[in-house]
Design a protein that fits this description.
The chain is mostly helical. The protein has 14 helices and 2 strands, in the order αββααααααααααααα. Strands 1-2 form a two-stranded antiparallel ribbon. Helix 3 packs across helix 8 and helix 13 (about 265-275) runs antiparallel to helix 14. It starts with 17 loop residues before the first helix and ends with a helix.
């Protein structure tokens, strides 16, 4: 009677010698890297390629249809001596501060309010996210109608109903930037609300139940339960908002074009002017590189400061 030969027993990975385990791990890592290599190369080409090209272009003078000449620090000197640069930098910082003071707490407050609702919370979540669905250009054109400085403007009609005089809104150097921040907060709060709502689901419900049994009000629950558990996401969202608002362009460009009297000219609007109005691509990339360096330094300092705060907490 002929029997089937038994299959050779395979040695488990943990029972193999150390040098064989290292070879097996290296081989598996190499195969995984080889599979992911095309995606990595595509990512590097389309993500980091433009970054390195911008770094090179910031040291060159490039004209459309012509070659590029190396000019060294000339582009940076041109940007730093531009009389509009200090005003644009102050406007950008002003917009960032206003957005942090008024625009940052609003999504968090909305998320906490929606999470406290027992019924139809999904309905209010959809309403909060609805402005994000509206195309930015359409939203800005709609708000320009609201900001109409005449008595026919929506906001001025509300002021008239309260017995107040109409305001120039976007035509006033003092009111233009706060008006833009109001629209930007309305347009961008929905995404932050959804993120905060997702983070609130990770807070243990038994903590809320214990706080309610102790008679804690909603403000005490917010201070002692909600905010400590959301500290990490709040720190991250604030950093992302600062980076995003420092690169504001669409709102001032479409609302006021940088006016009145350069009161809403941002740094990215200055980049746009260099590149597409003056065809000075070297100056545009030089200012972009300086802005990226500033944001990088701010991010590092912010992360170090918040890490120490978390450690003390």
């Amino acid at each position: 009677m002929t029997g089937t030969a038994p299959a050779p027993a395979t040695t488990p990975l943990a029972a193999r010698p150390a040098w064989r385990r290292r070879i097996a791990r290296t081989r598996s890592s190499g195969v995984a890297l080889l599979i992911a290599l095309p995606a990595i190369l595509i990512f590097l080409y389309f993500s980091w390629g433009p970054i390195f090209s911008s770094l090179v272009m910031s040291w060159q003078r490039s004209l459309p249809g012509q070659g590029a000449d190396w000019v060294g620090w000339a582009n940076f000197v041109y940007v730093l001596t531009d009389p509009v640069l200090p005003q644009a930098a102050l406007n950008t910082v002003y917009f960032t501060v206003l957005a942090a003071l008024f625009g940052f707490p609003v999504p968090l407050a909305l998320a906490v309010f929606i999470s406290e609702l027992r019924r139809r919370s999904w309905y209010y979540s959809a309403l909060a996210y609805l402005p994000v669905v509206v195309p930015p250009v359409v939203a800005i054109l709609l708000w320009k109608f609201f900001y109409d400085p005449s008595t026919h403007g929506v906001f001025n009609q509300i002021l008239a109903g309260l017995g107040l005089d109409p305001l120039p809104w976007l035509n006033s150097p003092a009111l233009a930037m706060p008006s833009i921040v109001l629209e930007a907060t309305w347009a961008g709060a929905g995404t932050a609300v959804i993120i905060y709502l997702a983070a609130l689901t990770s807070v243990p419900t038994d903590l809320y139940e214990a706080a309610e049994l102790d008679g804690a009000s909603i403000w005490r629950r917010l201070r002692h339960v909600t905010l400590p558990h959301l500290r990490g996401i709040i720190v991250t969202m604030l950093l992302l908002q600062v980076i995003g608002t420092m690169q504001v362009f669409t709102e001032p460009f479409l609302f006021t074009g940088g006016g009145p009297q350069n009161a809403t000219t941002s740094l990215l609007m200055l980049v746009y002017k260099y590149a597409f109005q003056q065809a000075n691509y070297g100056a545009a990339t030089a200012l972009s590189v300086m802005l990226a360096l500033v944001l990088g330094v701010v991010s590092v300092v912010y992360l170090l400061a918040t890490r120490r705060w978390d450690t003390r907490a």
